[in-house]
Amino acid sequence: MVHDDVRRILRIGLFFVLGAVSLPVLAQGLPAINVTEAASGDTQYSLTLQLLLLMSALTLLPSLLIMMTSFVRVIIVLSLLRQALGTGQTPPNQVLVGIALFLTLFIMSPVMVDIYENAMVPYTAGQIGQEEALSQAGAPLRTFMLAQTRENDLNVFMEMAELPVTTDYQSVPMTVLVPAFMTSELKTAFTMGFLVYIPFVIIDLVVASVLMAMGMMMLSPMMISMPFKLMLFVLADGWLLIMQSIAASFAGV
Asked: Cα–Cα distance between 151 and 155 in angstroms, integer?
């Protein structure tokens, strides 16, 4: 496994090196950017054009990671959990993003393995062309997004795109599927955040009622309720429950 990770890192580094080396060549206009048709019918691009496409794709990777995976749901639930605890900036944003990133990798690992085995490996071995590799890579990602997208959201965006509403969602274009998936993820994330808030709101209400009954209205309820919320969260093994609940919400994908 370590050797495989090293090879992947070297490949990524090689791509960056090739991109840097190709810049002077591009400035001189060599080699020419051209598109040819292979004997098998697949479209073949010159190395220069492939590097340009690669550099363009790298700028889109953050958006793809954030909006086409489980990252949105994870980071929103964790942010609402922090607000419900009333701990301010603890855990800090960097920690929440790191947790959300690695939990996203855990949730998306079956999809990434499918893409690697059915698209990356055959393409690097020369068994399939670029267009077929992109098609093979998009299939598991489409299946993942369809499994998490509400039908009502899909129908609304299909109507907005002036497409006929159909039950065969496998033919829905990505330009419609992606915003529908994002909308569904926001709904699911806020629903989970509401459920996370309930026990902490109850603690705040109980503490505020007790303080008012004791005539201590000048004392902030947050100062008293936060230790109790932290104690409840730790005793209930809250972090494990939250991680388990988020991962279970993607079960069956």
From this structure: 6
**DSSP string for residues in 139-182:** HHHHHHHHHHS-HHHHHHHHHHTT----S-GGG--HHHHHHHHH
- Encoding tokens for residue 9? 């890192």
Q: Are 161 and 176 in contact (CB under 8 A)?
A: yes
43: helix, coil or strand? strand
Q: Give per-residue pLDDT as tens, 179-205.
A: 899 999 999 999 999 998 898 888 888
* Cα separation, 119 vs 117, whole angstroms: 6
Structure tokens of 133?
């590799």
Distance CA 143, CA 108 (A): 12
57's enclosing H/E stretch is: helix 47-67
Run of H or E including 242 = helix 238-248
Task: Note the pLDDT tens digit of each residue in 199-209.
Answer: 888 888 888 88
* Residue at token pair 């279970």: 248
Q: What is the pLDDT of residue 35?
A: 44
Pick the closest to residue 157 from 140, 169, 148 (CA basis): 169
Range 194-210 burial, b when 16+ CB lie within 10 A, else e: eebeeebeebbeebbee
For residue 41, pLDDT over 60 is answered with: no
Residue positions counted in the chain: 253
Q: How far apart are CA 94 and CA 91, in angstroms?
A: 8
3-state secondary structure of 34: coil
